[in-house]
Amino acid sequence: MVTVLDTIANAPRLRHPEKAHKPDQEVLRKPDWIRVKAPVSKGYAETREIVKSHKLVTVCEEAGCPNIGECWEKKHATFMIMGEICTRACAFCNVATGIPTALDPDEPARVAHAVKQMGLSHVVITSVDRDDLADGGARHFAEVIRAIRAATPSTTIEILTPDFLRKEGALEIVVAAKPDVFNHNLETVPSNYLTVRPGARYFHSIRLLQRVKELDPSIFTKSGIMVGLGEERNEILQLMDDLRSANVDFMTIGQYLQPSKKHHPVIRFVTPEEFKSFETIGRTKGFLLVASSPLTRSSHHAGDDFARLRAAREAQLRKSA
Questions:
Q1: Residue 60 annotated in ligand binding
Q2: What is the distance between the alpha carbons of residues 181 and 168, in angstroms, rounded to a whole number?
Q3: What pLDDT digit, counting tens, does each position of 257-285 carry?
Q4: Distance CA 142, CA 98 (A)
Q5: Fold topology of 41-320
Q6: Total-model pTM
Q7: 162, 186, 303, 305: most buried, per Cβ within 10 A?
């Protein structure tokens, strides 16, 4: 039996040469709707102290997230495990690339203690890519999940993982640890992959998300993209269909912001009205939840979104009963 995924997986990988990064390209001025205040609150300072005292890394800092002030004020943080150095060099990402250090066996316990000290009801755990490890860091992810479960059993756990490309059996290890939400971001449309995400493969990522559902249908699946990288509207709509063909529950869409002049330029700033239309279209395509706005990020409002996800699934089950 030939599935939709079989068809798209065998399709040629296209590239738009006009989208390639031009070092001398003009840096666009940020519109008013994308501007945020500098973090100065007491809550922000307290969260920063907890993170530093536990010698932990957060993607909030490493990726220069614009929502760090808002999230840290509420004592929300996304922990980035397995070090600060990534084995890949994506054109959009501000995380350092190089040769990573060895895994820290004490890290799962430190993360769990920080989650407990911060009183988190929902936590997001992500990581750098670790292509240097035989399992891509899958066992470390599982150990972190188990440590959090032991320390705070009521905390729901969301993970944002690498693609585990060419790591046989890695995904199964992570899914067996039973996170509540499994997130893996596509980041952009397939025509941008050679210039934006050259170390990844679009259809491998689609298949990864589909496989999670096959292994454990109770786990919510989630994926996100950035816009403003030169993609066409129809490409975004096709990407939505690809995610739905993999039974993905939740999609996030946010504005790409260029971390430095060395990174891929912002081709354009998408308007709030366009983001709203993507949300509406995504819901009609069958996602349980779509978060779409200029400042939307994978883990922004993750706890509130998880509650909305559960409510949407319950409503869907009642409707089909």
A1: yes
A2: 21
A3: 888 888 999 999 999 999 999 999 999 99
A4: 24
A5: TIM Barrel (3.20.20)
A6: 0.84
A7: 162
